[in-house]
Amino acid sequence: MGTKYQGTDAEVLALDTYIKVTRAAQSIMSRAMQHLGDSNLSPSQFAILEALYHLGTLSQVELAQKLLLSTGNITTVIQNLEKRDLVCRQRSTDDQRYMQVSITDSGRALIASIFPSHVQGIVDIMNTLTPEEQQTLAQLTRKLGFGK
Description:
The protein is mainly alpha-helical. It has 2 domains: 1-32; 38-119, Winged helix-like DNA-binding domain superfamily/Winged helix DNA-binding domain (Arc Repressor Mutant, subunit A). It contains 6 helices and 3 strands, in the order H-H-E-H-H-E-E-H-H. The protein has helices at 9-32, 43-55, 60-67, 71-83, 105-126, 131-146; strands at 58-59, 87-91, 99-103. The chain has a 3-stranded antiparallel sheet with strand order 1-3-2. A hairpin with a 7-residue loop joins strand 2 and strand 3 (99-103). The longest helix is centred in the first third of the chain and has 24 residues, at 9-32. It starts with 8 loop residues before the first helix and ends with a helix.
């Protein structure tokens, strides 16, 4: 479904494209995150565990920046992960204003057990496109994301 806006050709094209990109992104996220129900993780919780699993200890600010989440939201998500013993927090020894977040052994085990199916789900979704189309889409979305 495109826009019903009756503007210039450029406005209608931009709005239609925006709607299609937004719907595609939402559809992909929904399908890619379906497997999380079994692990009782939200998409934000999964993203934090995945980042810590692959990147190591990060500050809450770094996590928020990497995952495009607000610092207020990330605090709540981390607290909920901490209650499940999936992450732990410590004040930075260099700067007491920063909380360092680390994945625990149980968090590492959980993400290691669900990440392969997550990857396969992404591969299945992206296989709708040819490898060349995936590369083109990656270039276009990067360009769009940077606004250049």
